[in-house]
Amino acid sequence: MSSSAKPPSARATRPKVDTRIIDYPRAGRRWPWKLIPSWRQVLLLGLVGVAVVLGAFAYAYQAIAIPEADKAAVAQSTQVFWSNGDFLGQFSGGSNRTNVAIKNVPPVLEHAVISAEDRDFYQNRGISPRGIARALVSNLTSDSKGQGGSTITQQFVRNYYQDVGSQKTYQRKVREAILAIKINQEKSKDQILQDYLNTIWWGRRSYGLQAAAKAWFPRGANDYKSLTLDQSAFLAAVIQAPDTFDYQRADGTIDATRQARAKARFDYVIAGMLKKGWITQQQAQEAKLPQLARPSRTNYYKGTNGYLLDYVHAQLQAETGWSDEQIEGGGYRIITTLDKDAQAAAVQAMKPKKDGGQFPDDASDVHAGLASIDVKTGRLIAMYGGPDYLKRQINDAVHGRAPGSSFKPFALAAGLKDGLSLYSTFWGNSPLPSTKTRNEFGQSYGSHVSLLYGLQESINTVYVDEAQQIGPKKVKAAIEAAGIPADTPGLQAVPSIPLGTADVSPLQMALGYSAFANHGVRAEAPQVIDHVFQATHPKRVTKPDATKTVKAFDGDVAADVTFALHKVVTSGTGTAALGVGAPVAAKTGTNGVQDNTLSAWFVGFTPTVATAVDFYRGDGLQDLDGVGGDTHRAFFGGGFPASVWTAYMKAVSAMPAYAPKGDFPPLACVNCNGRGGGAVTSEPSAGTSSGPQPSSSPTASAPAPSPSASPTPSAPVQPSPSPSPSRSTPAEPPVEAPGGGATPGAAAPQAQKR
């Protein structure tokens, strides 16, 4: 060994140990104690976590803005009322909701709802930490997000604001909670509760407290302002599950299972009210489930009123430009011009004869319409569109059909304007040589028949001849002046235009005849909407402009047409209307093709009301002849249509608002060379007809020409001095079929029925 070598020290010979790694036994390894966080670290991490959560909440609170109210949540039903303010119905499509003010809600109902849904409502800040914690524990332990823990404010947020949703996710619930806190800061508790009561679903197709009270409780005990303790507790109970607790069946029986569930929830509400000191122990003991109304599926469009609601809806949209959503869910209150009593008279008149009405009992697939307006204002007072809107959506009061001879008064007005008089004579025999137009059953009346007598007996050839000589365009202009649109299907300036082959509605005809009743002046259009109120602002009123009027005819012309129409009732085809018991002027109208009657009309007026009635069968192409039981009887406007019209007008004329306060104006006798106001006779003179005779006798019964029993009475004598100009000989233009163009040599068309 070298002398310079040092002996190894004890430290140098000691084996090295790596203290960084400890080889624990395989049985189990534990982390070194140095890696376990200290309490300071835990506290620091907790503070950081809280800071992060608070920061995230603060960010979300600032970022989440209160959204717009959901349209469905604020939608209220728009209701329609008769002219006297009585409820008529409400539009379908809108929510069955009418908002109420919290000041009108009885405290017992407020307390019941709070007891059922959020007993700390007045103390919490929009959310309930205790409820959230309870829901969180439930959700974690059940692996479900179904537990709610929502306050009234949270429920309101969920139902009222758009884009909040009802998905069972934590993200949605966080957003809901933040919005609830914000709403609680911005609104008072009373405002939140009011909005909640107006928003929630109460079952039985009702949203909001007022609709709920009417849906659940019997009539006479369903005013939300006077709800009892029992009713209030029940309504509060059903909020949780309305269908589950509805134990009253439609047939009057009770569902025992549902009743037991309702009773348990009801008792929970009562117990909460007692605990809060809102009721006494005695009240709690005496509380019991209230009497419920039977479930109802009210559809206001059922029956005859459905046609009224549909028409009002269409007119409101036409006048305002509002969408269906605005109209049906806008919560408007519409006061109409429709008279409840007049409408009842119309419905009664349209009932079958076996039920006290005037409609034929044997009337398979027969339809009828009625429209009635105030002649001074154009206000629609009654409309019959059919027996049940839900079964058939065609409104026969506004649906167009050919009016037949009820168009002839417009041709008379055109002739008077053109220089004719009631005494001007035209061809009355059948057929008219120039057009082959025939009278009913080929009846001939003479070659010189006055316009007055021609209207009284509804002689086709007289008015077709007149239209040829003054020009069909002038007749068409008179029809348009009466309010019939120029583009009406079938309205053509041809000689047959007085025979009424265009498609017009009873409402249009009633408006047109109102011009005769009102000295030549009519409303620009029928009016059905009087006032529109906005429910949320009762003092805000929308009222249509004052009725605009149109001068359709000179007053003297209207007076003479009225006189002629009055003669139709006293001596002609409209004698059924004498039963009204008031001054009446009217005209029959029957449209036929070949031997089939396709539509039958009766149109007329008193000094106050103008009304039109029409009948048709199937789609308008089926024969009406034989309807009413007699298969051999022709169906005329002077039959069932006149009976319905008379029954209705008799009832209306007895009403103070529409009772005639005078007679028709005196005869003016336009173009009578100074004979205005004198008595006019339409009686035919003795003698024989100079026109062609019918080749065969009528095969169906028809009103006999009055006043002569002869099948071919002679023409009325023109009074002296003769009116100017005199039209004593019919012209001979090319042959033209009714409703068609010139067709030389065409076969004779079927007579237009009267």
Topology:
Elements (H helix, E strand, L loop, with lengths): L9 H4 L25 H25 L7 H4 L4 E3 L5 E4 L16 H11 L11 H14 L9 H9 L9 H17 L2 H11 L1 E3 L2 E2 L1 H8 L12 H10 L3 H4 L10 H20 L5 H6 L18 H16 L3 H6 L2 E5 L3 H10 L16 E9 L5 E5 L23 H10 L7 E2 L22 E2 H6 L3 H11 L1 H10 L24 H12 L3 E3 L5 E6 L2 E6 L6 E3 L3 H17 L13 E9 L2 E10 L3 E9 L22 H14 L101
Parallel strand pairs: 1-5
Antiparallel strand pairs: 1-2, 3-4, 5-11, 6-7, 6-16, 8-9, 10-13, 11-12, 14-15, 15-16
Helix pairs in contact: 4-10, 4-12, 6-7, 6-8, 10-12, 16-23, 17-19, 17-20, 17-22, 19-20
Radius of gyration: 41 Å
Main sheet strand line-up:
2-1-5-11-12
- The number of strands is 16
Distance between the termini: 157 Å
Major β-sheet, in short? 5 strands, mixed
Shape: elongated
Give unreliable regions as ranges.
Answer: 143-148, 674-753
Secondary-structure class: alpha+beta
Mean pLDDT: 80
Number of helices: 23
Portion of residues in beta strands equals 5-15%
The helix fraction, in percent, is 25-40%
